[in-house]
Specification:
alpha/beta; 7 helices; Molybdenum Cofactor Biosythetic Enzyme, Chain A; 6-stranded mixed sheet; two-stranded antiparallel sheet; single chain; 200 residues
Length: 200
């Protein structure tokens, strides 16, 4: 099985933020037998995001985006998903109630623009965020899966570990693998290629 990862954000393309999400996701997916075939970084522009999603879904079993799910005007991922998959955005009253509870528990007023985070593409499954507010999203189309995750690393990792990984692990064709890493020092790459590591 193959996955394409799309990181979204002008700040990444401008060099202001380092994309650590793709590396982390690729490693986690690899341990489940899902290889990352390509990774893209795109700006906060609906047309570019939507086009990249469409093309990626035509050549991979899974497409995962990170970023652009926040409440600000430059968070365009929800709208881009709706455009790419030709669905409408719908207001999720149930999740909005959870958002209000989060702010109530923290004892701080909820900004009005946070309401945007309760809009989800029609048919999407909401993946609850145990660290922040913006939910992850999961949609299935003709046997392929589109997944949108927040760009903030702790939030992305929380949703993947607690929501997405258990779900993916139960799918047919997913094989959890044990990965072993060997570290060497003072050996050039050309020499390492000829070394055979034998497990006891």
């Amino acid at each position: 099985m193959k996955c394409i990862i799309i990181t979204i954000g002008d700040e990444i393309l401008a060099g202001k933020t380092v994309d650590s999400n793709s590396t982390w996701l690729s490693k986690e997916l690899g341990s489940m037998g899902i290889g990352t075939s390509m990774a893209f970084t795109v700006p906060d522009e609906i047309e570019i995001i939507a086009t990249t999603i469409e093309k990626s879904l035509s050549s991979a079993d899974f497409v995962i985006t990170t970023g652009g799910l926040g409440p600000t005007d430059d968070d365009m991922t929800r709208e881009a998903i709706a455009k790419a998959l030709d669905v409408e955005l719908q207001f999720d009253d149930h999740y909005f109630a959870k958002i209000k509870d989060i702010f109530a528990e923290r004892g701080i007023p909820m900004p009005e623009n946070v309401r945007r985070e309760a809009y989800v593409p029609e048919g999407a499954r909401v993946l609850e965020n145990g660290v922040g507010v913006a939910p992850g999203l999961l949609l299935e189309r003709e046997g392929k899966y589109f997944i949108a995750l927040p760009g903030v690393p702790p939030e992305m990792k929380d949703i993947f570990a607690n929501q997405l990984r258990p779900m993916l692990s139960s799918m047919d064709g997913i094989e959890i693998r044990r990965v072993e890493t060997f570290y060497t020092a003072g050996i050039p790459e050309s020499a390492r290629c000829s070394i055979s590591f034998l497990r006891p």
